[in-house]
C-alpha cells in the first residue's frame, strides 16, 4: 500500500511528464498506481493524458469511473464536459458543465468552458454572458479577455473588442496575438501610438517564433494601411516564414491526401440512402474566395439558418474513409450502407444542436470542397456552391491573413499556388459526376452585378426571392472567420484585384499557379 508521501512523490513525477508531453508514459504509470490506490488525482491525471492524445472517449470512461466514487468532483465534471465538447456531443457537454456549476457556481474553468461551448454553438449572447461572468470573479484572466474580444469582433461590436484587447495587453504586454487582433479593428496612419509600440516590441531579442509571427502580421497590416506595400510585403513574408517554421508544413502530404480522395471516388456508385428531409446548402471553395459573403447573403433569407464554418463533414470522412490505411474504392468499404446511414444521422444530429428548426441550413467550411463526393452520398438532398474569384487575389489574401486552424498551406507562396492547383483539379474531378449539384459563383461577378447574381443563386438553392438578401450587412449572426469585418459591410468592389498593389513581389505565386 502506498503511503501519502510516496503517492505525492509519484504524482509529482507523473505531473511533470504530463507537462512535457510524455502522455504514453503517464498513462502506463498512472494505470499502475490506480491499481494500488484509487485516488481522485490519479483519475484526473489519466483523463488529461487521454485528452492530450485526442482520445476523448477513453478520457470520458476514466472520468465516469471516477464520478462513481465522487459524483460531485468538480474537476471530473469539467474534464468530462471538455471531452464531450471535443467530440461535438454538445448537449452532453453542457449537462456536465452545468452539473459542475451546481457544485460550485464560481468555478471559473467551467464558466469559461460554457462560454466556449456557446461560442461553438453560435449562441453569441450566451457565450458573452458566461465570459463576462468569469471576469466578475477574476478580471485579469487573459484568455477570457481574448475570447470576449473575438466574440465582439464576430458580432460587429468593434469598440468592445478593442477594450478587451487593450486589457489583455495590460495584463501581458508580450501577448502579441492581442496586438495582431487589434490591428484588424483599426485603420492606421504613421503616427498611430499602437503602430509605434509594435515597432518597438518587434526589436525585443527574447521574442519566441509565435510572438514574432503575430507582430509581423500586425506590421504587415499597419504598413498596408499607410500604403508602404514593400514593407507590408516584407512583414507578411516574415510572419509566414515563422509560421512555417512552427507548422513544418509539407505540400506533399496534401498531394497524397488529394490522390487518396480521388482514388476512393473513382468509378464509385453511391449506396442507396434515404434522402435527408432537411435541405443543406454547402458553401465551399478556397479560403478567402467569398464563402463568408455568400453565406451572409443566403442566411439573410427568412427561411435559412446560417451554420457557419463547421468541421462535421471532415471529421466524419476522416473517421470512416481517409484514415483507412488502404486505397480502397468507395464501394469496397465494408458495411458501406451503415457508414453512410450513420454519417447522415450523426451530421443531422450535430447541426440540430445549432438549430433544430426545419429551416434550410448552411454549412460554410471552405475545405469541404475535398468531400463533395461524400456529401452527395450521405446528404443527397443538398446544394453545393463553389466560390471562386481571381486566383492571385485568393492566394494573396490567404498569405496576408493569420489563420489559427490547419490552413498551413497558406504560409508560402509556392505552396499556395500548388494547393490552388490541387483545388482546381479536384473540382474538375467532382464535376464529372456531380456537375448538376455544383453551382459556381464568381466573387467579381457577385460584387459587380449583385442583384442578378443573388437571384440566380437563390434559384439554384430553390429558395424564393427575399429582398433581405440584398441587405446582408444587417444580418446580426456572428461571423467567426477572418472575414468578420468585410462580410458585415454592403457589397464593395475594393477587394477585386487587391493583389495588384503587391504584383511586383508575387512572382513565386504567378509562376506556379495554373491560371
Walk me through the structure:
By secondary structure, the chain is mainly alpha-helical. The chain has 24 helices and five strands. A five-stranded parallel β-sheet has the order 2-3-1-4-5, sandwiched between helices. α8 runs antiparallel to α9. The protein starts with a helix and ends in a 5-residue tail after the last helix.
Return Rg in Å: 24 Å
* Oligomeric state of the chains in view: single chain
The H/E string reads HHHHHHHHHHHHHHHEHEHHEHEHHEHHH
Compute the number of helices. 24
Question: Largest beta sheet, briefly?
Answer: 5 strands, parallel
**Which percent bin holds the helix content?**
55-70%
Portion in strands? under 5%
Give, in spatial order, the strands making up the sheet with the most strands. 2-3-1-4-5
Q: Mean pLDDT score, rounded? A: 91
Number of strands: 5
Form type: globular
Residue runs with pLDDT of under 50 for 5 or more positions = none
End-to-end separation in angstroms reads 71 Å
Q: SS-based structural class? A: mainly alpha
Jot down its keywords.
515 residues, mainly alpha, 24 helices, globular
Summarize this, please?
This protein is mainly alpha-helical. It has helices at 4-19, 23-36, 40-52, 56-69, 74-86, 90-103, 108-120, 124-137, 142-154, 158-171, 176-183, 193-201, 209-225, 229-247, 251-265, 291-298, 312-322, 336-354, 372-378, 391-400, 413-434, 443-448, 450-460, 507-510, and strands at residues 280-285, 304-306, 360-363, 382-388, 438-442. 59% of the residues lie in helices and 5% in strands.
Amino acid at each position: 500500500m502506498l503511503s501519502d508521501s510516496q503517492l505525492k512523490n509519484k504524482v509529482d513525477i507523473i505531473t511533470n511528464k504530463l507537462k512535457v508531453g510524455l502522455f504514453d508514459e503517464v498513462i502506463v504509470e498512472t494505470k499502475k498506481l490506480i491499481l494500488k490506490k484509487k485516488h481522485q488525482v490519479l483519475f484526473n491525471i489519466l483523463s488529461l493524458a487521454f485528452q492530450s492524445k485526442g482520445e476523448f472517449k477513453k478520457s470520458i470512461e476514466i472520468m465516469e469511473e471516477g464520478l462513481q466514487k465522487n459524483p460531485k468532483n468538480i474537476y471530473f465534471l469539467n474534464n468530462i464536459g471538455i471531452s464531450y465538447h471535443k467530440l461535438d456531443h454538445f448537449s452532453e457537454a453542457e449537462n456536465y458543465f452545468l452539473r459542475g456549476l451546481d457544485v460550485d457556481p464560481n468555478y471559473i474553468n467551467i464558466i469559461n468552458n460554457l462560454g466556449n461551448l456557446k461560442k461553438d454553438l453560435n449562441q453569441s449572447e450566451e457565450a458573452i454572458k458566461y465570459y463576462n461572468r468569469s471576469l466578475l470573479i477574476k478580471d485579469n484572466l487573459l484568455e477570457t479577455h481574448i475570447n470576449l474580444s473575438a466574440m465582439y469582433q464576430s458580432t460587429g461590436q468593434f469598440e468592445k473588442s478593442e477594450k478587451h484587447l487593450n486589457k489583455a495587453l495590460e495584463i501581458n504586454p508580450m501577448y502579441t496575438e492581442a496586438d495582431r487582433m487589434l490591428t484588424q479593428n483599426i485603420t492606421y496612419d504613421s503616427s498611430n501610438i499602437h503602430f509605434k509600440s509594435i515597432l518597438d516590441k518587434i526589436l525585443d531579442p527574447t521574442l519566441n517564433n509565435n510572438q514574432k509571427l503575430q507582430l509581423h502580421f500586425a506590421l504587415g497590416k499597419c504598413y498596408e494601411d499607410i500604403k508602404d506595400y514593400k514593407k507590408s510585403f516584407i512583414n507578411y513574408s516574415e510572419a509566414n516564414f515563422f509560421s512555417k517554421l512552427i507548422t513544418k508544413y509539407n505540400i506533399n502530404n496534401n498531394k497524397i491526401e488529394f490522390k487518396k480522395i480521388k482514388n476512393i471516388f473513382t468509378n464509385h456508385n453511391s449506396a442507396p440512402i434515404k434522402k435527408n428531409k432537411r435541405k443543406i446548402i454547402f458553401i465551399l471553395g478556397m479560403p478567402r474566395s467569398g464563402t463568408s459573403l455568400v453565406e451572409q447573403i443566403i442566411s439573410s433569407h427568412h427561411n435559412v439558418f446560417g451554420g457557419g464554418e463547421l468541421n462535421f463533414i471532415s471529421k466524419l470522412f476522416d473517421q470512416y474513409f481517409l484514415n483507412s490505411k488502404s486505397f480502397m474504392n468507395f464501394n469496397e468499404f465494408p458495411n458501406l450502407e451503415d457508414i453512410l446511414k450513420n454519417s447522415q444521422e450523426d451530421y443531422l444530429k450535430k447541426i440540430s444542436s445549432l438549430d433544430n428548426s426545419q429551416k434550410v441550413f448552411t454549412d460554410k467550411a471552405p475545405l469541404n470542397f475535398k468531400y463533395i463526393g461524400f456529401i452527395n452520398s450521405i446528404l443527397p438532398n443538398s446544394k453545393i456552391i463553389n466560390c471562386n474569384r481571381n486566383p492571385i487575389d485568393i492566394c494573396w489574401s490567404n498569405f496576408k491573413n493569420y489563420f489559427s486552424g490547419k490552413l498551413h498551406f497558406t504560409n508560402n507562396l509556392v505552396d499556395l499556388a500548388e494547393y490552388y492547383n490541387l483545388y482546381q483539379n479536384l473540382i474538375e474531378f467532382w464535376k464529372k459526376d456531380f456537375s448538376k449539384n455544383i453551382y459556381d459563383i464568381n466573387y467579381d461577378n457577385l460584387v459587380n452585378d449583385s442583384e442578378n447574381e443573388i437571384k440566380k443563386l437563390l434559384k439554384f438553392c430553390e429558395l424564393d426571392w427575399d429582398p433581405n438578401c440584398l441587405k446582408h450587412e444587417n444580418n446580426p449572426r456572428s461571423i467567426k472567420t477572418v472575414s468578420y469585418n468585410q462580410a458585415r459591410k454592403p457589397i464593395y468592389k475594393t477587394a477585386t484585384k487587391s493583389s495588384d498593389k503587391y504584383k511586383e513581389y508575387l512572382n513565386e505565386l504567378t509562376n506556379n499557379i495554373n491560371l
